[in-house]
Design brief:
The protein has about 160 residues and is α+β, with helices and mostly antiparallel strands. The chain has a single domain, classed as Nuclear Transport Factor 2, Chain: A, CATH 3.10.450.50. Helix content is about 35%, strand content about 45%. The longest helix is centred in the first third of the chain and has 23 residues.
Length: about 160
Amino acid sequence: MIKQFAFALLTTAMPLAASAQTAAGSQSLQADPREAELIALSKQKWLWMAERNVEALSELFDEKAIFVHMSRTMTQPQELGVIQSRNIEYRRADIKEISVRFIGDTAIVASRIDLHAIVRDQVADNPFSVTETYVKVDGRWKLAALAFSKRSVPN
């Protein structure tokens, strides 16, 4: 039992240590070169959202993608519509921690962010845990799901 606990602790702590190094800006122990590609793509996505670049986002977001916000679930056209209409103005995402896991041609990007936005004309600066799921389609990563969970404790 103790050996199983120690193994579980080690396998959990190792990815967290690599994530913390990535978040701190130092070199991480990236075994898979796709990891850096997905981290860069996730960061670029936040910039496109802040710029309301719906053309670039529509290329990135799969047409079947779902977007889970705190109060609703949206389709790709609905998410793009919210961004374009400025119902939610994404200002900036300060990434505190980020990690990537792969399952075949699927990548799961988990991050802790401080999101700075304007929602219904109100400033909304909130800490979130974000999960992005990407799938490789025709040699390109497509975002299949984006889920926000508000954190009760700041990063």
